């Protein structure tokens, strides 16, 4: 369907004028990016939503970067954005598209509230996804067609000095139908960007269910149980990430969910290694368990705080120590004759190397070489969907362990079948040794019954003639 052409000119307060007009296929694009400049001011005042308020003394900033990046470092709490839009006389239904925003926000058009994302004080909460569309009623437009837009943003104080607040990408305004199509397009792009997480989710889910199926067949071998539960927790972890990327979720609740499922996943993995390697819960297990608790707490704090050099460094240290303990457990098991342990050890070493390298490079200053290496590690596969090398290594590692468990299951089944054949042969031999009928003995009537507890028994008897009619 051909998109209806719409020209939207942006005009700020008298000191500056900005007109946005984009040509496309000999028609004007019905969506305009509101990069700005916007008027910006820290603090909070209900009068700032009024379209008649004089904001000429406010700072001018763009809306494609956080306010920390634009010179307002250490700013947390409340701040306002304002911009005036001149709408042509001939237009259809209008709407706003708001992309990623660090923090909660409310949006106003000519003083009327259009909507919000997250919670504002006195009951604030920060959402994880803010992409949304807000229709603009035609009744809100002033007589001259102008539209004063005000955005009230609240950023958590815990983000101070770490994650700046406000817009991270410029909002858009235009034809309501086209704006809605833009939102759907952004959702499709987000799904493609989450392709690696989706692959890990279904891969872990299928492998985990397969492992639990093996456990249902062999209840005494608990390595199938622990491995299956570990992967199911990993799937639950990815479900939280995907839900948070597609719709607003309370950031603290999400952080608790991510940390809890991550902790349970590693804990079940440790139990799997103990049973798989036939080891006791000794010092390596204890160290890994304590590091796991620190790692989960650090992960939750990173999610809530939004980053930080100290927390990032602590997370690198804890995740490296935990991986080293697990690799050491597998290596010791290999030295003790469990050759199956070497394959998960190699897979875990690859995962740990890629994860640690990516985190360390991300924490380094933005040198050209470090950014180039980090981009290479994070790029991975880009078709048919995005899958980085770390996610690929995790998937291959889980698949390798499943192959080992299936092989163990088949080997145990073969041993049982061979033992069954031997027991059947022993039973046949024993039936030969035990008389099925008693010889006639004058003056006696004899009967016998022999019921072994399992396939064979430990005793047998025979009635042997000694001559002269005696037995």
Descriptive overview:
The chain is α+β, with helices and mostly antiparallel strands. The protein folds into 2 domains: 9-188, Sandwich (Jelly Rolls), CATH 2.60.120.260; 194-414. The chain contains 9 helices and 15 strands. It has helices at residues 176-193, 195-217, 223-246, 251-276, 283-305, 309-335, 342-363, 368-379, 389-433, and strands spanning 9-10, 23-24, 27-28, 31-33, 38-42, 59-61, 77-86, 94-98, 101-102, 104-109, 112-117, 132-136, 146-155, 166-167, 172-175. The strands form 4 sheets. Strands 1, 5, 6, 7, 10, 11 and 13 form a 7-stranded antiparallel beta sheet that branches. The chain has a 4-stranded antiparallel beta sheet with strand order 4-15-8-12, covered by helices on one side. Strands 2-3 form a two-stranded antiparallel ribbon. The model is unreliable at 1-29 (pLDDT under 50).
Short description:
By secondary structure, the chain is an alpha+beta fold. 47% of the residues lie in helices and 14% in strands.
* Helical amount: 40-55%
Supply the number of helical segments.
9
Distance between the termini: 106 Å
Helix and strand run:
EEEEEEEEEEEEEEEHHHHHHHHH
- Main sheet summary: 7 strands, antiparallel
How would you sum up the global shape? elongated
């Amino acid at each position: 369907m051909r998109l209806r052409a719409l020209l939207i000119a942006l005009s700020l307060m008298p000191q500056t004028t900005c007109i946005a007009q984009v040509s496309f296929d000999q028609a004007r694009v019905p969506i305009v990016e509101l990069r700005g400049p916007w008027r910006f001011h820290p603090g909070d005042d209900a009068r700032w939503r009024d379209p008649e308020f004089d904001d000429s003394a406010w700072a001018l900033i763009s809306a494609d970067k956080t306010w920390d990046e634009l010179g307002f470092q250490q700013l947390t709490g409340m701040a306002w954005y304002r911009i005036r839009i001149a709408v042509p006389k001939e237009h259809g239904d209008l709407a706003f598209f708001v992309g990623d925003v660090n923090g909660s926000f409310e949006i106003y058009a000519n003083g009327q509230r259009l909507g919000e994302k997250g919670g504002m004080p006195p009951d604030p909460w920060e959402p994880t996804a803010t992409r949304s569309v807000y229709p603009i009623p035609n009744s809100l437009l002033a007589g001259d067609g102008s539209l004063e837009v005000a955005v009230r943003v609240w950023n958590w104080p815990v983000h101070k000095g770490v994650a700046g607040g406000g817009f991270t990408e410029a909002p858009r305004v235009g034809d309501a139908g086209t704006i809605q199509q833009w939102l759907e397009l952004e959702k499709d792009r987000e799904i493609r960007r989450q392709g690696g997480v989706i692959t890990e989710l279904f891969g872990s889910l299928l492998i985990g269910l397969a492992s639990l199926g093996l456990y249902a067949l062999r209840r005494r071998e608990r390595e199938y149980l622990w491995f299956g539960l570990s992967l199911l927790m990993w799937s639950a972890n990815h479900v939280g990430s995907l839900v948070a990327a597609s719709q607003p979720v309370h950031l603290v609740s999400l952080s608790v969910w991510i940390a809890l499922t991550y902790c349970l996943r590693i804990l079940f993995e440790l139990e799997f290694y103990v049973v798989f390697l036939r080891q006791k819960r000794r010092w390596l297990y204890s160290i890994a368990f304590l590091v796991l608790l620190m790692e989960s707490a650090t992960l939750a704090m990173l999610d809530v705080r939004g980053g930080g050099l100290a927390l990032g460094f602590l997370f690198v240290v804890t995740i490296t120590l935990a991986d080293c303990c697990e690799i050491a457990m597998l290596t010791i098991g290999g030295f003790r004759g469990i050759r199956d342990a070497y394959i998960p050890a190699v897979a875990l070493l690859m995962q740990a190397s890629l994860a640690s390298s990516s985190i360390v490079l991300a924490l380094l200053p933005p040198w050209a070489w470090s950014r180039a290496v980090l981009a290479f590690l994070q790029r991975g596969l880009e078709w048919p969907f995005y899958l980085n090398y770390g996610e690929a290594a995790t998937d291959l590692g889980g698949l390798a362990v499943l192959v080992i468990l299936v092989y163990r299951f088949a080997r145990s089944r073969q041993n049982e079948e061979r033992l069954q054949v031997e027991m059947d042969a022993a039973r046949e031999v024993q039936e030969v040794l035990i008389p099925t009928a008693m010889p006639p003995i004058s003056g006696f009537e004899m009967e016998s019954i022999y019921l072994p507890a399992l396939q064979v028994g430990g005793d047998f008897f025979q009635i042997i003639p000694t001559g002269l009619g005696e037995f």
